[in-house]
Amino acid sequence: MPKKLVVLSFDALQTGDLELLSGLPWFSRILKKAAVVKNVREIYPTLTYPIHTTMITGVHPDRHGITHNQKARINPDDPDFSIMGSDWYWEKENIKVKTLTDAVWEQGGSVATVLWPVTAGEKRGYNLPEIWPVRGGGEDPKSVYEKAASDNVMSDYYGRFVGHYNWSDNEDMCYYGVEVALDLLKTQRPDLLLCHVVMLDHTRHLYGDQGNEVNDCLRELDIIAGRFVEAVREAGEWDNTNFVILGDHGQIDIETVFNINSVFKDMGLIRTDEKGKAVDYDAYSFSAGFSAQVFLNEPGDPQWIQKVYRVLEEIRRKYPRYLERIYTAEEAEAEEQLRGGFSFVLEGTEGTLFGNEVSVPAVISADSPLFQFHRAMHGHHPDKGDKPPFLAFGPDILPGVRLDSGNMIDVCPTFAKLARVDLPAMEGKPFPILKA
């Protein structure tokens, strides 16, 4: 029988964080015996939902279908895509291929997923999905979760951990998922546990990529990692459990916001009402952080594609400090394995965040009184920024292995080999850290 597998995704954990973590009580012990893959190259865009879906499918977004955190709209109900925005790719049905959890179920194993992206609607096992009622939308939180979570999570955990949440921000989400996952390890002993821990990502967004607040959060993650180790010991499963702790992406400090939709408006591609709200468009940009995806009203019209491409080239000549690369849909698919309903993908220069607003200045610097964004972000091309690490330890892991680089596409094959399941569509191969 395969050993159990516990996966902790510490959102926005970076390889550079290992220096501080190596001096902390729990990570200092973990790192001595763990296999470590540093600088794992992400997929494009470096957003949480596409990356976490690649982690459990082993394929790029052109095949699994999750190309962004959110579904594109010119006027989203809540445009804050990094924290508590609207219309995310919450539901598991959005994934177009077989997942690691599907494979474990098919092999007769048990699964628990806690705040793992793109799992809403999964009723097998214990599933507390990452989902929330849209702010100002009037949704009943309990109804949202009854539809999205497994029935046993609703009966055993909703009232204890989730029901009190007021949904004005995501501070509670940073903590209640950890408590639910720890209880599941002790009481249910699942064969596979996937837990997404968001607090480091949240901290970096608010305070910047580096700083005292980030260091304090890393110290908190050290305690959390230790609590998971102790929970497995308490459950009597220590010798029967492999652990993985990994990050999904890095972050980069924001220097400038480039509101390309404002430029589109000035060039006649977006029309607005008297209040400055978009009412019609030929093309609009939907931000993915440091990159953006451009959607056309007539996406199948070659003449419109060429017209908008010429407009984008004109914008790049006018704003070379902010717009680095224009991908056609064909180039994005061929070079980055990224395919969706968009006609173009835009990559900003390092530190340039794309805004979604229409009736605002085209460029807002981070030191401007108009700047009302976070201090750091991601969504950039994987050639940029600090990279996440992958740490593994347990009975099936070669202790002390150190690899200087890796690829996100190889994460799922590593999980699959540890869980002894087969996902034939996977594009990568396991990291060379496993015992024969």
Structural features, described:
This protein has 436 residues and is of the alpha/beta class. The chain folds into 2 domains: 4-250 and 384-419, 3-Layer(aba) Sandwich (Alkaline Phosphatase, subunit A), CATH 3.40.720.10; 255-373, Gyrase A, domain 2 (2-Layer Sandwich), CATH 3.30.1360. It has 14 helices and 21 strands. The strands form 6 sheets. The chain has an 8-stranded mixed β-sheet with strand order 5-4-6-1-7-19-2-20, sandwiched between helices. Strands 12-13-15-14 form a 4-stranded antiparallel β-sheet. A 3-stranded mixed β-sheet has the order 16-9-17, with no helix packed on it. β10 and β11 form a beta hairpin. The longest helix is centred in the middle third of the chain and has 23 residues, at 212-234. The chain is globular, with a radius of gyration of 22 Å.
Describe this structure in a few short sentences.
The chain has 436 residues and is of the alpha/beta class. It has helices at 18-21, 25-33, 48-57, 61-64, 100-106, 141-148, 151-162, 173-187, 199-207, 212-234, 260-266, 302-318, 329-336, 411-419, and strands at 4-10, 35-37, 40-41, 111-114, 126-128, 192-197, 241-246, 252-253, 256-258, 270-272, 278-281, 283-287, 291-296, 323-328, 344-348, 352-354, 363-365, 376-377, 390-393, 402-403, 406-407.
Task: Supply the key terms.
eight-stranded mixed sheet; 19% strand; alpha/beta; 14 helices; Alkaline Phosphatase, subunit A; four-stranded antiparallel sheet; single chain; globular; 436 residues; 21 strands; Gyrase A, domain 2
